[in-house]
Write a structure and sequence with these properties.
It contains eight helices and 16 strands. The protein is of the alpha+beta class. A hairpin with a 7-residue loop joins β15 and β16. The N and C termini lie far apart (174 Å).
């Protein structure tokens, strides 16, 4: 019983599989590929490009194969259109991606003597892009030569992966890496032309400059791509590129800010007098302390600004040369170069000797430069002033009063009506004693204050 059921299910499955095979076979053989080619031509026409293909046929999967494809643009400035010839191109549509709810397209071609693969996925919340190219011959790419009128040579490998949430370029994240094997610029015949530059507007003949293996990487985060490790070295010189690219919608509104550092070998400069003259002219504005020349390129992609010679990188790349210290307070101190010995310690100056303690002579309350501290309890009243010594009995004094100048002990001053000067500072009330009397040790001893000589001479006679 069970074996009969299995045989029945097997017949149903085999019939369904055979039906699908026949369907795709008929679709593969009878699909109007000419109409598909016309649809692609109309789609490119909306983007401003012209596409021509000699034939269209089936390919593996759901897609179309085009042969001898020619793509050309429509320049608006009167120049000749740029043409790209692709021997074979394959376009596929993913059926499984459509069942999953997103659109996936794949493009495979062999332009410029190499291989190119492109896959794009468009979903409801996110779109992604994968691009890879191998062994692309730079000498066959027409855009670079049309921009600077200098041919490029070398083999290029490129890998790009990016994700764009919400179809917003400002939120793009991903990475771009490339390697150019045996890259070279110029051929010794073509002239470098940069419109708007007084020196390069008419063209400057350059020899062939070898760049070696020119490698680099761009990391993209939140729509900003930062260059990392972009460099090339060869017997003709060295080149380094740093900067960032800000993506925007539309893509032509994106902007870039790049800083190029390069140094040419003496053998290359000797081989071209014009190149040597140009480098001498740019030395005052663009030659850095480390021997490199600096050029800054910035602006939107649609209207890129002119190259500017500058010694300073806007991205903080230090030049390996001495820097003058800023003549203001708070200026940053330059770091010592790598591998430099540590500076010798500076001996500290000996500390000065502490000052001698002040004399502890008593100071009257009225002569204190600052008020005394507030005591915990009110002090006792000062003792009464000492009375002058009595004259000797054997030496009667004349009735004349003593001279005011020779009196050793002045009469006590009358008590002030208000509080003493020191009392407010100490927080006390008015003192009942005379204001600021001298302490007992302050007056001179009686033996040293003898009476005036005038009155005592008659007594001795």
């Amino acid at each position: 019983m069970q074996s009969d059921r299995l045989r029945h299910l097997g017949r149903i499955g085999a019939t369904a599989a055979f039906g699908l095979f026949v369907f795709f076979l008929v679709l593969f053989l009878t699909l109007p590929y000419g109409r598909v080619k016309d649809y692609l031509v109309a789609l490119a026409d909306q983007k401003g490009y012209d596409i021509e293909a000699k034939s269209a046929g089936p390919t593996f999967g759901v897609g179309v194969r085009l042969k001898d494809v020619t793509i050309s643009d429509r320049p608006s400035d009167g120049r000749k259109p740029t043409r790209i010839v692709i021997p074979v191109a394959k376009l596929r549509w993913s059926l499984l991606g459509a069942l999953a709810g997103h659109k996936t397209y794949q493009v495979s071609a062999n332009p410029f003597g190499g291989a190119l693969d492109l896959e794009t996925t468009q979903g409801n919340k996110e779109s992604s892009l994968r691009f890879g190219a191998k062994a692309i011959d730079l000498s066959e790419i027409p855009w670079v030569k049309a921009a600077i009128n200098l041919p490029l040579s070398g083999s290029l490998d490129v890998s790009l992966e990016e994700k764009m949430p919400g179809a917003r370029a400002s939120a793009t994240a991903g990475s771009l890496t490339w390697t150019c094997h045996a890259c070279a610029v110029g051929d010794g015949k073509a002239k470098l032309i940069i419109p708007g530059n007084p020196l390069l507007a008419e063209g400057l003949g350059l020899p062939k400059v070898r760049l070696g293996d020119f490698v680099g990487r761009v990391t993209i985060e939140k729509g900003v791509g930062r260059l990392q490790g972009v460099q090339g070295k060869s017997p003709d010189g060295e080149i380094f590129l740093e900067g960032e690219i800000k993506l925007a919608d539309p893509f032509s509104s994106s902007s870039l800010d790049l800083y190029l550092r390069f140094k040419l070998s003496d053998a290359l400069l000797k081989s071209s007098e014009k190149l040597r003259t140009m480098m001498q002219f740019a030395g005052s504005a663009g030659k850095r302390p480390d021997g490199f020349y600096g050029v800054r390129i910035s602006g939107p992609l649609a209207h890129l600004g002119q190259p500017v010679w500058t010694k300073t990188s806007p991205f903080g790349t230090p030049a390996s040369g001495p820097r003058p210290l800023a003549g203001r307070l708070g200026a940053p101190v330059p770091r010592p170069p790598a591998g430099a010995p540590p500076p010798a310690p500076v001996p500290l100056a000996p500390l000065p000797a502490p000052p001698a303690p002040l004399a502890t002579a008593p100071v009257a309350a009225t002569e204190m430069p600052y008020p005394p501290p507030v005591p915990a309890a009110p002090p006792a009243p000062p003792p009464p002033a000492p009375s002058p010594p009595a004259p000797a009995a054997t030496e009667p004094q004349p009735p004349a009063p003593p001279a005011p100048a020779s009196d050793p002990t002045p009469p006590p001053a009358p008590a002030p009506s208000g509080p003493s000067p020191a009392a407010p500072a100490a927080g006390l009330g008015p003192s009942p004693a005379p204001a600021a009397p001298s302490p007992p040790a302050a007056p001179s001893p009686p033996a040293t204050t003898a009476p005036a000589p005038g009155p005592t001479q008659p007594a001795g006679q």
